[in-house]
Amino acid sequence: MGDSKNILLYPPSVVYGLITGIRNFLYNNNVLPSEEFSLPVICVGNIAVGGTGKTPHTEYLIELLRDKYKVATLSRGYKRATRDFKIASFASSVREIGDEPLQICRKFPEILVTVDRNRVSGVKNILQLKPETDVIILDDGFQHRRITPGFSILLTDFEKLLSTDHLMPYGSLREDKSNMSRADVILITKSPENITPIERRLILKQIDKAPYQNLYFTSLTYKDPVPVFENSVGPVPSLSVCKGSSIILVTGIANPVPFKEHLEKSFGEIVHLSFPDHHNFKEMDIKKISKAFEDLKSQEKYIVTTEKDAVRIREFTNIADSLKSSFYYFPVGIKFLNNDKEKFDNLIVEYVRKNTRNNRVFEVCRDN
Fold first, then answer.
1. CB 41 within 8 A of CB 69
2. Model's pTM, two decimal places?
3. Which uninterrupted H or E stretch holds 62?
4. Residue 300 half-sphere exposure, CB side, CA atoms within 13 Å?
5. 84 vs 362, more confident
6. How far apart are CA 357 and CA 201, in angstroms?
7. Do 113 and 87 form a contact (C-beta atoms < 8 A)?
8. What are the backbone dihedrals phi and psi of residue 306, each rounded to the nearest 5 degrees, phi first?
9. φ and ψ at 247, to 5 degrees?
10. What is the spatial distance between Cα 188 and Cα 253, in angstroms, rounded to a whole number?
Protein backbone atom coordinates (compact mmCIF):
# COMPACT_ATOMS: atom_id res chain seq x y z
CA MET A 1 0.00 0.00 0.00
CA GLY A 2 2.30 2.74 -1.16
CA ASP A 3 2.00 5.26 -3.97
CA SER A 4 1.86 2.44 -6.52
CA LYS A 5 -1.11 0.20 -5.80
CA ASN A 6 -1.97 -3.25 -7.06
CA ILE A 7 -5.12 -2.83 -9.13
CA LEU A 8 -6.01 -6.45 -8.41
CA LEU A 9 -6.71 -5.40 -4.82
CA TYR A 10 -9.38 -2.92 -5.90
CA PRO A 11 -12.28 -5.42 -6.35
CA PRO A 12 -11.79 -6.89 -2.83
CA SER A 13 -11.77 -3.34 -1.45
CA VAL A 14 -15.17 -2.73 -3.09
CA VAL A 15 -16.57 -5.85 -1.38
CA TYR A 16 -15.01 -4.77 1.91
CA GLY A 17 -16.56 -1.33 1.48
CA LEU A 18 -20.00 -2.83 0.97
CA ILE A 19 -19.69 -4.88 4.16
CA THR A 20 -18.51 -1.98 6.32
CA GLY A 21 -21.00 0.34 4.64
CA ILE A 22 -23.94 -1.92 5.50
CA ARG A 23 -22.68 -2.18 9.08
CA ASN A 24 -22.44 1.59 9.48
CA PHE A 25 -25.84 2.07 7.81
CA LEU A 26 -27.44 -0.26 10.36
CA TYR A 27 -25.84 1.64 13.24
CA ASN A 28 -26.65 5.06 11.78
CA ASN A 29 -30.32 4.09 11.45
CA ASN A 30 -30.55 2.49 14.91
CA VAL A 31 -31.13 -1.00 13.53
CA LEU A 32 -28.08 -2.14 15.47
CA PRO A 33 -28.03 -0.77 19.04
CA SER A 34 -25.37 1.65 20.24
CA GLU A 35 -25.20 2.49 23.94
CA GLU A 36 -24.65 5.89 25.56
CA PHE A 37 -23.58 6.63 29.12
CA SER A 38 -24.34 9.36 31.63
CA LEU A 39 -20.82 10.77 31.83
CA PRO A 40 -18.45 12.33 29.30
CA VAL A 41 -16.87 9.75 27.01
CA ILE A 42 -14.12 10.95 24.65
CA CYS A 43 -13.06 8.74 21.76
CA VAL A 44 -9.58 9.04 20.20
CA GLY A 45 -9.23 7.00 17.02
CA ASN A 46 -8.66 6.73 13.30
CA ILE A 47 -10.11 4.89 10.33
CA ALA A 48 -6.78 3.85 8.79
CA VAL A 49 -4.45 0.98 9.52
CA GLY A 50 -1.10 2.17 10.84
CA GLY A 51 0.19 4.60 13.41
CA THR A 52 -1.36 8.06 13.57
CA GLY A 53 -0.20 8.86 17.10
CA LYS A 54 -3.21 7.79 19.16
CA THR A 55 -1.26 7.13 22.35
CA PRO A 56 0.53 10.53 22.52
CA HIS A 57 -2.80 12.27 21.88
CA THR A 58 -4.52 10.16 24.54
CA GLU A 59 -1.75 11.11 26.96
CA TYR A 60 -2.23 14.76 26.04
CA LEU A 61 -5.90 14.52 27.05
CA ILE A 62 -4.93 12.85 30.33
CA GLU A 63 -2.48 15.67 31.08
CA LEU A 64 -5.17 18.22 30.26
CA LEU A 65 -7.90 16.72 32.47
CA ARG A 66 -6.26 14.84 35.33
CA ASP A 67 -5.85 17.78 37.72
CA LYS A 68 -9.56 18.67 37.72
CA TYR A 69 -11.29 15.37 36.96
CA LYS A 70 -11.09 11.70 37.82
CA VAL A 71 -9.97 10.26 34.50
CA ALA A 72 -10.20 6.68 33.27
CA THR A 73 -8.94 5.24 30.00
CA LEU A 74 -10.36 2.21 28.23
CA SER A 75 -8.72 0.40 25.35
CA ARG A 76 -8.83 -2.99 23.72
CA GLY A 77 -5.30 -3.88 24.81
CA TYR A 78 -4.05 -4.84 21.38
CA LYS A 79 -2.22 -8.19 21.12
CA ARG A 80 -2.65 -9.05 24.80
CA ALA A 81 -3.18 -12.70 25.70
CA THR A 82 -6.33 -11.98 27.73
CA ARG A 83 -9.76 -10.84 26.54
CA ASP A 84 -11.78 -9.77 29.57
CA PHE A 85 -11.88 -6.56 31.62
CA LYS A 86 -8.71 -5.74 33.54
CA ILE A 87 -7.40 -2.79 35.52
CA ALA A 88 -3.77 -1.96 34.83
CA SER A 89 -1.21 -1.66 37.61
CA PHE A 90 2.57 -1.45 37.94
CA ALA A 91 2.54 -5.22 38.42
CA SER A 92 0.70 -5.80 35.13
CA SER A 93 2.49 -7.29 32.14
CA VAL A 94 2.30 -6.56 28.43
CA ARG A 95 0.92 -10.05 27.93
CA GLU A 96 -1.90 -9.27 30.37
CA ILE A 97 -2.99 -5.76 29.25
CA GLY A 98 -0.96 -4.74 26.18
CA ASP A 99 1.96 -2.37 25.74
CA GLU A 100 0.17 0.97 25.31
CA PRO A 101 -2.09 0.64 28.40
CA LEU A 102 0.94 -0.39 30.46
CA GLN A 103 2.86 2.64 29.19
CA ILE A 104 -0.01 4.95 30.19
CA CYS A 105 -0.40 3.25 33.57
CA ARG A 106 3.24 3.75 34.48
CA LYS A 107 3.29 7.33 33.26
CA PHE A 108 0.02 8.31 35.00
CA PRO A 109 -0.33 6.09 38.08
CA GLU A 110 -3.00 8.39 39.54
CA ILE A 111 -5.59 7.61 36.84
CA LEU A 112 -7.57 4.44 36.14
CA VAL A 113 -6.26 2.52 33.12
CA THR A 114 -8.41 -0.36 31.92
CA VAL A 115 -8.74 -2.77 29.00
CA ASP A 116 -11.71 -4.68 27.66
CA ARG A 117 -12.38 -6.16 24.24
CA ASN A 118 -16.03 -5.17 24.70
CA ARG A 119 -16.06 -1.39 25.21
CA VAL A 120 -19.66 -1.28 26.47
CA SER A 121 -18.87 -3.89 29.09
CA GLY A 122 -15.67 -2.02 29.90
CA VAL A 123 -17.48 1.26 30.62
CA LYS A 124 -20.05 -0.56 32.77
CA ASN A 125 -17.26 -2.20 34.77
CA ILE A 126 -15.55 1.16 35.30
CA LEU A 127 -18.78 2.74 36.56
CA GLN A 128 -19.46 -0.20 38.87
CA LEU A 129 -15.95 -0.39 40.33
CA LYS A 130 -15.13 3.34 40.24
CA PRO A 131 -18.45 5.26 40.25
CA GLU A 132 -16.58 8.47 41.08
CA THR A 133 -15.08 8.52 37.56
CA ASP A 134 -15.72 11.86 35.82
CA VAL A 135 -14.60 11.15 32.26
CA ILE A 136 -13.59 8.11 30.21
CA ILE A 137 -11.15 8.30 27.30
CA LEU A 138 -11.63 5.55 24.70
CA ASP A 139 -8.30 4.77 23.07
CA ASP A 140 -8.81 3.61 19.46
CA GLY A 141 -12.57 3.25 19.66
CA PHE A 142 -13.77 5.02 16.51
CA GLN A 143 -14.85 1.76 14.79
CA HIS A 144 -16.44 0.37 17.95
CA ARG A 145 -19.99 1.39 17.04
CA ARG A 146 -21.64 -0.48 19.91
CA ILE A 147 -20.82 2.52 22.06
CA THR A 148 -21.70 6.13 21.24
CA PRO A 149 -19.04 8.49 22.60
CA GLY A 150 -19.98 11.99 23.60
CA PHE A 151 -17.02 13.48 21.79
CA SER A 152 -14.97 11.95 18.97
CA ILE A 153 -11.47 12.93 17.89
CA LEU A 154 -10.38 11.51 14.54
CA LEU A 155 -6.67 11.37 13.68
CA THR A 156 -5.19 11.29 10.19
CA ASP A 157 -1.50 11.28 9.27
CA PHE A 158 -0.20 14.36 7.43
CA GLU A 159 1.71 12.13 5.00
CA LYS A 160 -1.30 9.88 4.31
CA LEU A 161 -4.50 11.84 4.63
CA LEU A 162 -7.66 9.76 4.84
CA SER A 163 -9.19 12.01 2.17
CA THR A 164 -6.72 10.67 -0.41
CA ASP A 165 -6.63 7.07 0.84
CA HIS A 166 -8.68 4.03 -0.22
CA LEU A 167 -10.42 1.13 1.48
CA MET A 168 -8.48 -1.99 2.41
CA PRO A 169 -6.84 -3.94 0.90
CA TYR A 170 -6.32 -1.50 -1.99
CA GLY A 171 -5.60 1.23 0.55
CA SER A 172 -5.37 1.40 4.32
CA LEU A 173 -8.84 2.65 5.33
CA ARG A 174 -10.88 0.41 7.63
CA GLU A 175 -14.10 2.13 6.60
CA ASP A 176 -15.14 4.70 4.01
CA LYS A 177 -13.76 8.22 4.43
CA SER A 178 -17.34 9.57 4.58
CA ASN A 179 -17.52 8.22 8.13
CA MET A 180 -15.26 11.02 9.32
CA SER A 181 -18.59 12.86 9.66
CA ARG A 182 -18.90 11.16 13.07
CA ALA A 183 -15.93 13.15 14.37
CA ASP A 184 -16.25 16.37 16.32
CA VAL A 185 -12.55 17.18 15.88
CA ILE A 186 -10.19 16.13 13.08
CA LEU A 187 -6.47 16.25 13.88
CA ILE A 188 -3.84 16.24 11.14
CA THR A 189 -1.04 14.48 13.03
CA LYS A 190 2.71 14.32 12.48
CA SER A 191 2.55 17.62 10.64
CA PRO A 192 5.79 19.51 9.93
CA GLU A 193 6.15 22.49 12.23
CA ASN A 194 6.96 24.75 9.28
CA ILE A 195 3.77 23.95 7.36
CA THR A 196 2.81 26.93 5.21
CA PRO A 197 -0.60 28.67 5.12
CA ILE A 198 -1.03 27.47 1.52
CA GLU A 199 -0.43 23.85 2.57
CA ARG A 200 -2.96 24.23 5.38
CA ARG A 201 -5.58 25.60 3.00
CA LEU A 202 -4.99 22.77 0.52
CA ILE A 203 -5.44 20.18 3.26
CA LEU A 204 -8.59 21.88 4.52
CA LYS A 205 -9.97 21.72 1.00
CA GLN A 206 -9.04 18.03 0.65
CA ILE A 207 -10.53 17.05 3.99
CA ASP A 208 -13.72 19.01 3.25
CA LYS A 209 -14.83 19.02 6.87
CA ALA A 210 -18.38 19.80 7.92
CA PRO A 211 -19.20 23.19 9.51
CA TYR A 212 -19.68 21.59 12.94
CA GLN A 213 -16.21 20.04 12.89
CA ASN A 214 -12.99 21.62 14.13
CA LEU A 215 -9.70 20.81 12.43
CA TYR A 216 -6.25 21.28 13.95
CA PHE A 217 -2.67 20.38 13.05
CA THR A 218 -0.35 18.67 15.52
CA SER A 219 3.29 17.63 15.35
CA LEU A 220 5.29 15.13 17.37
CA THR A 221 7.75 16.36 19.99
CA TYR A 222 10.58 14.26 21.40
CA LYS A 223 11.72 14.78 24.97
CA ASP A 224 15.08 14.02 26.56
CA PRO A 225 16.19 10.36 26.41
CA VAL A 226 15.45 8.11 29.38
CA PRO A 227 17.15 4.81 30.34
CA VAL A 228 14.97 1.82 29.47
CA PHE A 229 16.17 -0.03 32.56
CA GLU A 230 15.88 1.93 35.79
CA ASN A 231 19.09 0.52 37.30
CA SER A 232 21.20 1.52 34.31
CA VAL A 233 24.34 3.40 35.29
CA GLY A 234 25.49 4.52 31.85
CA PRO A 235 25.53 8.22 30.90
CA VAL A 236 22.25 9.54 29.56
CA PRO A 237 22.94 10.91 26.08
CA SER A 238 22.08 14.51 25.36
CA LEU A 239 21.16 15.58 21.85
CA SER A 240 23.52 18.53 22.19
CA VAL A 241 26.58 16.30 22.58
CA CYS A 242 25.65 13.24 20.49
CA LYS A 243 26.35 14.46 16.97
CA GLY A 244 29.29 12.09 16.64
CA SER A 245 27.63 9.16 18.37
CA SER A 246 26.47 5.95 16.73
CA ILE A 247 23.22 4.25 17.61
CA ILE A 248 21.28 1.08 17.00
CA LEU A 249 17.68 2.15 16.44
CA VAL A 250 15.20 -0.55 17.49
CA THR A 251 11.56 -0.05 16.51
CA GLY A 252 8.44 -2.19 16.63
CA ILE A 253 5.90 0.45 15.63
CA ALA A 254 3.71 0.95 12.56
CA ASN A 255 5.57 3.99 11.21
CA PRO A 256 9.11 4.56 12.52
CA VAL A 257 10.05 7.10 9.81
CA PRO A 258 9.35 10.32 11.80
CA PHE A 259 11.36 9.03 14.77
CA LYS A 260 14.29 8.01 12.57
CA GLU A 261 14.25 11.38 10.80
CA HIS A 262 14.33 13.12 14.17
CA LEU A 263 17.37 11.11 15.28
CA GLU A 264 19.20 11.76 12.01
CA LYS A 265 19.37 15.44 12.94
CA SER A 266 21.49 14.70 16.00
CA PHE A 267 23.28 11.37 15.69
CA GLY A 268 26.00 10.17 13.34
CA GLU A 269 25.75 6.55 12.27
CA ILE A 270 22.30 4.97 12.64
CA VAL A 271 21.69 1.26 12.14
CA HIS A 272 17.93 0.64 12.08
CA LEU A 273 16.54 -2.72 13.21
CA SER A 274 12.85 -2.62 12.32
CA PHE A 275 10.33 -5.11 13.74
CA PRO A 276 6.54 -5.42 13.19
CA ASP A 277 4.15 -3.22 15.15
CA HIS A 278 3.64 -4.41 18.75
CA HIS A 279 6.43 -6.96 18.23
CA ASN A 280 6.90 -9.46 21.04
CA PHE A 281 10.68 -9.46 21.43
CA LYS A 282 12.37 -12.84 21.75
CA GLU A 283 15.85 -14.00 22.67
CA MET A 284 16.93 -14.17 19.03
CA ASP A 285 15.92 -10.50 18.63
CA ILE A 286 18.02 -9.46 21.61
CA LYS A 287 20.97 -11.39 20.18
CA LYS A 288 20.50 -9.56 16.88
CA ILE A 289 20.45 -6.20 18.68
CA SER A 290 23.51 -7.14 20.74
CA LYS A 291 25.46 -8.22 17.63
CA ALA A 292 24.61 -5.00 15.78
CA PHE A 293 25.65 -2.97 18.83
CA GLU A 294 29.01 -4.77 19.05
CA ASP A 295 29.65 -4.12 15.35
CA LEU A 296 29.42 -0.34 15.80
CA LYS A 297 32.92 1.14 15.59
CA SER A 298 32.23 4.37 17.47
CA GLN A 299 33.41 4.65 21.08
CA GLU A 300 30.27 6.58 22.01
CA LYS A 301 27.37 4.36 21.05
CA TYR A 302 23.86 3.67 22.30
CA ILE A 303 20.76 1.60 21.63
CA VAL A 304 17.73 3.83 21.08
CA THR A 305 14.11 2.73 20.95
CA THR A 306 10.62 4.16 21.20
CA GLU A 307 8.66 4.57 24.40
CA LYS A 308 6.20 1.84 23.41
CA ASP A 309 8.98 -0.58 22.49
CA ALA A 310 10.71 0.16 25.79
CA VAL A 311 7.68 -1.17 27.66
CA ARG A 312 8.06 -4.53 25.91
CA ILE A 313 11.86 -4.68 25.96
CA ARG A 314 11.90 -3.93 29.69
CA GLU A 315 10.03 -7.18 30.35
CA PHE A 316 12.75 -9.23 28.66
CA THR A 317 14.92 -10.34 31.57
CA ASN A 318 17.69 -12.14 29.68
CA ILE A 319 19.69 -9.04 28.71
CA ALA A 320 23.29 -8.52 29.77
CA ASP A 321 23.92 -5.61 32.15
CA SER A 322 26.41 -4.10 29.71
CA LEU A 323 23.68 -3.94 27.09
CA LYS A 324 21.05 -2.66 29.52
CA SER A 325 23.18 0.35 30.38
CA SER A 326 23.18 1.42 26.72
CA PHE A 327 19.39 1.19 26.18
CA TYR A 328 17.41 4.48 26.00
CA TYR A 329 14.02 5.61 24.79
CA PHE A 330 12.66 9.02 23.82
CA PRO A 331 9.28 9.98 25.33
CA VAL A 332 6.93 11.43 22.72
CA GLY A 333 4.49 14.30 23.10
CA ILE A 334 2.42 16.43 20.75
CA LYS A 335 2.37 20.11 19.90
CA PHE A 336 -0.55 22.05 18.45
CA LEU A 337 0.44 24.27 15.54
CA ASN A 338 -0.90 27.71 14.54
CA ASN A 339 -1.50 28.67 18.20
CA ASP A 340 -4.50 26.30 18.33
CA LYS A 341 -3.65 24.68 21.67
CA GLU A 342 -5.88 26.98 23.71
CA LYS A 343 -8.83 26.50 21.34
CA PHE A 344 -8.55 22.71 21.50
CA ASP A 345 -8.02 22.65 25.26
CA ASN A 346 -11.05 24.86 25.88
CA LEU A 347 -13.20 22.69 23.62
CA ILE A 348 -12.33 19.53 25.56
CA VAL A 349 -12.56 21.06 29.04
CA GLU A 350 -15.89 22.70 28.27
CA TYR A 351 -17.32 19.45 26.96
CA VAL A 352 -16.32 17.58 30.12
CA ARG A 353 -17.50 20.39 32.38
CA LYS A 354 -20.92 20.83 30.77
CA ASN A 355 -21.83 17.27 29.91
CA THR A 356 -23.11 15.44 32.94
CA ARG A 357 -24.85 13.20 30.41
CA ASN A 358 -23.24 11.79 27.34
CA ASN A 359 -24.90 14.11 24.82
CA ARG A 360 -23.06 14.93 21.60
CA VAL A 361 -21.74 18.48 21.59
CA PHE A 362 -22.77 19.32 18.04
CA GLU A 363 -25.89 17.16 17.68
CA VAL A 364 -28.15 20.15 17.05
CA CYS A 365 -25.82 21.43 14.34
CA ARG A 366 -25.81 18.06 12.64
CA ASP A 367 -29.58 17.73 12.76
CA ASN A 368 -29.89 21.12 11.11
1. no
2. 0.91
3. helix 54-65
4. 12
5. 84
6. 36
7. yes
8. -85, 165
9. -140, 150
10. 19
